[in-house]
Amino acid sequence: YSENPATGTGTDSTVIICDPKSPLYFRSAGKHNKLGELIGKTVKEAVKKALGNQNHLYPSTQHSVTERLRRYGVTEEVLYSYFREYKKDGIEEEWRHLWRKIDRSSEMVFISSFLAELLDEYRWGLAGNEEACHMAKKLLQMTEEAYGIQSASAEIKSAEDIKDAFCRLAVQAAVKKNGV
Questions:
Q1: Residues 104-143: pLDDT tens digits?
Q2: What's the chain look like in SS3?
Q3: pTM over 0.90
Q4: N or C: which end of the chain has fewer CB within 10 A?
Q5: How far is Cα 144 from Cα 170, in angstroms, rounded to an integer?
Q6: Separation CA 30–CA 122 (nearest Å)
Q7: How far apart are CA 45 and CA 97, in angstroms?
């Protein structure tokens, strides 16, 4: 049993045949017995290590707003375009400096994680558009309160509206946190 999201069934099994004459015999190597559990743990650790070595996917590199939301098109460059709307004379170097101070802050990382999960639920059809938009508004309001900012309350009717509102809010939070 696991608290992780389901990725298959526990009754799936793997057949391993080594020495049919051996006195050691296992009926199954699925997740519902010790051998399967140990094989699963070993493979999981090996995959984590490989992802780290090959793609630099470590918990420390993933503790970032832009890493959490990259798959939804929220990048430093996209946020810079919102910064330019917010502060017309803002230069990219100034933005990168402001953003790096907030990109890895625990509060913003968790907010972006909740937002990514909300967008995932919507994309996978597990939450309807109305539900996703309603919950996004609540999440954005919590963010406003956390950073002491008031965003222009845009109408949120779609996933694109959610991302747009978050980007605008993230820029305001970065500016406010840095006293600009």
A1: 999 999 999 999 999 999 999 999 999 999 999 999 999 8
A2: CCCCCCCCCCCCCCCCCCCCCCCCCCCCCCCCCHHHHHHHHHHHHHHHHHHHHHHCCCHHHHCCHHHHHHHHCCCHHHHHHHHHHHCCCCCHHHHHHHHHHHHCCHHHHHHHHHHHHHHHHHHCCCCCHHHHHHHHHHHHHHHHHHHCCCCCCCCCCCHHHHHHHHHHHHHHHHHHHCCC
A3: no
A4: N
A5: 9
A6: 32
A7: 35
